[in-house]
Structures are given as structure tokens and as C-alpha cells.
Amino acid sequence: MKRIGLVLGLASLVLSGCIERELTIDTVPTGAVVTLNDEEIGQSPVSTNFQWYGDYNVRISKAGYETLVTHRKLKKPIHDYFPIDFFVAVWPGKIKSKHQWSFELQPYSAPSRKELLDAAESLKGQAMADANTIPAN
Length: 137
Description:
By secondary structure, this protein is α+β, with helices and mostly antiparallel strands. The protein has one domain: Immunoglobulin-like, CATH 2.60.40. It is 29% helix and 36% strand. The strands form two sheets. Strands 3-2-5-6 form a four-stranded antiparallel β-sheet, with no helix packed on it. A three-stranded mixed β-sheet has the order 4-1-7, with no helix packed on it.
């Protein structure tokens, strides 16, 4: 019985490892609203914890600046690949994995009247082309 307790106690110590993943996003200018995968995380500079690596949809907006819509890939560090990840999971201490992205926003410039009319004409042409391709019932 004592051996089972000892084994469970040692296992709980060994399996208590933890990885803290943090992403910090900075912008120029600061104070922009940052959204990751359709979830607003705050105003820059902002840090957030995350669970997985991969592609993230990024949206950054601030009054007076063009809204930036892009995506970035958060690459796995070496300790997140097999078989190293197994040993990291059972490591008794904490491992911190910190990442940082920086973005520069461009000042907003209103389109000219001609640009708006050209865009409207282009959309009208696309709508008419789409209307001609829809089969009649």
C-alpha cells in the first residue's frame, strides 16, 4: 500500500510539468484594437495566452488608420515536436514559450470621388455578369 502511495506521489510530481505559451502583439501606433481569430484580445501592446500553434487571423484597427487584416503563422518551437514534447510534458518545472509580433498601421486616406465611382462601376459590372450566369427557373 505504501508503494502505491509512493508511486502516485512521484507520478504527480513528474506529471506536474507545465508549458506557458504567451503571444505579445505590438503596433505602431499603440492603442490599436487587436483581434485574433475573431476574438478581441485588447489594445496594443497586448499579451495573451494560447494553446496551439498554427495560422492566426489577425485584425488590427484604430481610428484614423487603415484597418489591417492579415494572418500570421505561429511556429512550433523545437520542444513541441515529437518525441521531445513527451519529455517536456513530464518535466517537473514550468517552461515559458514567448512569442512577439509587431505591426505598423498606415494612416487612413479617404478615397477620391473618382475612385469611389470607379469601384461602384466595377461592382455594377460584376453584378450584371453574375445575373447573366444565374439559370432561369
